[in-house]
Write a structure and sequence with these properties.
mainly alpha, transmembrane, transmembrane helix, membrane
Length: 73
Amino acid sequence: MKTSTMLGGLIGSAIDGRDGDDSTVDGALIGAGVVTAVRIILPIAVTFAAGWLVLRGLNKMTDAVLGARAPEN
């Protein structure tokens, strides 16, 4: 288990334990799950954003060199 997953579990457990209604196990599981999901989703989102910016830059460069394109219908 990675350190970040354990830290997420501890933070989730602490947050869940503040209300005092039930055990903190479900908060620990949710915290660990959130960290794992972020570890998976964040690189995908960054890759998508970088690709989008590159594509946008290429379109602007193409328009600057070749002139504006007619809208597609």
